User: What shape does this take?
Amino acid sequence: MLNFNVTLIFMAYGAPGPLNYGVFFVTLVTYLATMFANMILMLVIYCDTSLHKPMYIFLFNLAVNGLIGSSAVLPNIMSNLIDNMKNISYNNCLLQVFFINFYAGCAYGILTVMAYDRYVSICKPLQYHNIMTPAKVGLLIGVVYIFPMWFLAVQLHFTSSLPLCRYTINKLFCDNLAVVSLACFKSALVDLYGLVGVVIFIVCPLSLVIMSYVRILFVSLKASANAKKKALKTCAPHLITFINFSSASLFSVIYNRFSNYLPKELNVFMSIHFILIPPLLHPLIYGMRTESISKSLKKILQKKVFAFEFHLKSEDNMKKSAFSCLN
Assistant: This one.
């Protein structure tokens, strides 16, 4: 690696002050809420065997992916907000680039296979169990994780091969475009590879999701009112989640292109929106909009409360028995 011992400096933070402390507090609360919400969702799906179905397995992986994306960036951002030194080693910067892109690519991949699952469920209900077999679900999840990992490893190799002539990043965290812009010259190969990545990880998933919902819409229009209502209830959480993530991605693209021309406050919000908001909203949307998950969560909580009350009553009875024996 050409830039093994290089240290990069973030210029977007400014000195610690009221704005930084306010952003730190909001980021900390959101990060903790994100960890809690995703872990609760994962726990509910893991504990309730009735949720061991393709849709919920994909949702479990979406929660895991949200934890990866948040943990890859937010702790570093919070540290820089209150620290006087706003720097990062080049190696750690590349690692951050990898995990941010991995989070984005996997999120779109998981949302795409979830759309496919909804399409099979609604358009081919009698063949659902023959199509969405455990082997196929495992294959889809494997592709969602392994292909982005391989593709991004190659991208990271290309990026790290560029010699640097600048060492300051005018953003809150590292992304591939920010690192490439520090290079002494532009590489047509790196630009082309990045464009291919956009097509594979954004354009193709978006097209597949749209195609799936067009087919679902056509089938739903011919169905009964009850079937339409059921289809809407099934698809609503996924649609809301997909639109939310796509909006956040659009914010990120706008930020990457126009960050130098935006006010600092707007710059700060748009830079962390992509990592901050979707991982928190996804489990909340599914927790509130999916009846099966809500019921499972209530069931688990009731069991815990019942077990706690039983434990307290047992202790109380033991104390009464001991008191009676003494008398």
Notes: The chain is about 80% helix and 5% strand.
